[in-house]
Specification:
Number of domains: 2
Shape: elongated
Strand order of the largest sheet: 7-6-15-16-17-14-18
Order of helices and strands: EHEEEHEEEEHEEEEEHHEEEEHHHEEEH
Helix content: 25-40%
CATH topology of the largest domain: FAD/NAD(P)-binding domain
Oligomer: single chain
Number of helices: 9
Radius of gyration: 21 Å
Largest sheet: 7 strands, mixed
Length: 347
């Protein structure tokens, strides 16, 4: 590709950033559009004056050799580190050791999970706080319509949709691309994430817990991750709770305060089962602060395994974790392989 090839990428999560990086390195002129103030998508971190918390993807693994090399690059640039948490599984009755886990290496962004995304975005042209509400062709070029500022002045040869399937489908409705049918076939599910900041360290036997019963699916001591910022006291704890997709879907539009109360109550009940807390006779004190986030498109009921899709006639593509089995690795590889496909098509 050459600088005469212009590409618009909608969505500055890991898939979009991966795709943009590879295309720009191949010589294309790339513009990323992101509806939020910053990049990272679901590899996100909530930051306050006194604490921070990763409320989206909790960690990532690197089983693919290409992604392993990329993660090593992130480590070399001090934007990622290995995380070695004390992990357990709760089956509804007791806490169990996680089986077959000794060979799994987990990584997190450093000093917060959005650090790798910010690192990738440094060399890219990102138009933030722009909610793309329409794409259409004029004289063979793609135009981008943003809710906040109207039609973007640039014209593009290709458009990449690196956003969840329902959002991509909405943008594809006014096109003639068959990619719409692929997006419509994917059901994405919500997830409530409750962030809690305590003035003391909760003396439980785990830093991360996979939960197999009840309304929570995962809880983690975020402050146990490397480089995490907590309140001034070293004894402070920051936790994140993820609700199950099924429970989140049932209550997706419920009162947020009520959602937070229910999730906190479930967490307290879980902690009281923990023998470490029982032995310490430690009374659970309410968190000093808390924040609830609703991920409307957190995961897919059934992920695609196609890696990515590109409509050569319309010059439009789709990528994301939902097209490649989920996870951060899946998102990064999806964006990379879509970029490679464009580069091959337009040499």
């Amino acid at each position: 590709m050459t600088s005469s090839n212009s590409v618009a990428i909608i969505g500055a999560g890991i898939a979009g950033l991966s795709c943009a990086t590879a295309l720009q390195n191949a010589g294309a002129e790339v513009t990323l559009f992101e509806k939020s103030r910053g990049v990272s998508g679901r590899l996100s971190t909530r930051v306050t004056d006194y604490w921070q918390c990763d409320h989206g993807a909790q960690y990532f693994t690197a089983r693919d050799s290409l992604f392993h090399d990329e993660v090593q690059r992130w480590i070399d640039h001090a934007v990622a580190q290995e995380w070695q948490p004390l992990l357990k599984v709760f089956d509804g009755y007791t806490f169990l050791k996680k089986d077959n886990d000794s060979n799994t290496t987990r990584y997190v962004g450093y000093p917060k999970n959005n650090a790798p995304a910010k690192f990738l975005a440094k060399e890219l042209h990102v138009v933030s706080e722009t909610t793309v509400i329409g794409i259409h062709k004029q004289a063979g070029k793609w135009l981008i319509n943003g809710m906040e500022h109207g039609i973007y002045p640039g014209r593009f040869d290709d458009v990449i949709l690196a956003i969840p399937a329902p959002q991509a489908g909405t943008l594809l409705k006014n096109t003639t691309s068959d990619l719409l049918h692929i997006c419509n076939a994917v059901i994405m599910r919500p997830c409530f994430a409750l962030m809690l900041q305590y003035d003391y360290t909760i003396p439980c036997q785990f830093d991360g817990l996979f939960i197999q019963a009840g309304l929570l699916s995962w809880v983690a001591r975020d402050s146990a991750k490397p480089g995490r910022k907590v309140a001034s006291s070293r004894s402070s704890d920051v936790w994140v709770l993820h609700a199950t997709a099924e429970w989140s879907a049932l209550h997706v539009n419920d009162d947020r305060e009520r959602i937070a109360q229910i999730m906190l109550s479930e967490f307290n009940h879980l902690l009281m089962v923990d023998a470490s807390i029982q032995a310490s006779a430690h009374a659970l004190i309410a968190p000093k602060s808390q924040s609830l986030h609703r991920w409307l498109y957190a995961d897919a009921e059934k992920y695609l395994t196609d890696i990515c899709h590109y409509d050569t006639s319309q010059r439009i593509g789709i990528c994301g974790d939902w097209t490649n089995g989920g996870k951060v690795q899946g998102a990064w590889l999806s964006g990379l392989h879509l970029a490679k496909q464009l580069i091959t098509e337009h040499k």
